[in-house]
Amino acid sequence: xxxxxxxxxxxxxxxxxxxxxxxxxxxxxxxxxxxxxxxxxxxxxxxxxxxxxxxxxxxxxxxxxxxxxxxxxxxxxxxxxxxxxxxxxxxxxxxxxxxxxxxxxxxxxxxxxxxxxxxxxxxxxxxxxxxxxxxxxxxxxxxxxxxxxxxxxxxxxxxxxxxxxxxxxxxxxxxxxxxxxxxxxxxxxxxxxxxxxxxxxxxxxxxxxxxxxxxxxxx
Length: 219
Description:
Layout: H1 2-24, H2 67-70, E1 73-74, E2 77-78, H3 88-101, H4 103-106, H5 115-118, H6 130-133, H7 137-146, H8 160-178
Helix pairs in contact: 3-8, 7-8
């Protein structure tokens, strides 16, 4: 009968389409011959699927051939010259990064009495002692890069350019707390004999280093 014939044709057509679809559902892309990270290999003699870099190759953006810039030293000597141009923008960037990463321990004026120290953490040395005032610039870069004592390294958090910006700002901090009176402009010389005025917060409490603390986090 015509009705049964057309029904049988539709069934055969549907079955054919289904077979074609199943034929395309192969697992070759999913089960391709590859190594997932850390999987051992029986092909290489050392049993590792990860292969070492070809000797003499350098990954892109990892040449780092300027030791003064990337290591803070030349040979075995720490540099004492800033390897980047000293500009107002560099100091402003250094102040911003310093206040984020360094001030919690070293304090904003660099005396080592940061808010974390006030909560019981080990106190770092003040930047205003003779040893650190006379330390080469590369010393501070090296400490930021590799840590020192209780201080961990900040290489992952602070890129090379920002490390030098912080180093430049630390030197500016040291000068600010130990500058000779002769550097003060003549029209401000009289201000040196005036007592230091530290403003109070809106909550009536003196703010350390001029920081305005919200009421819920006052020290």
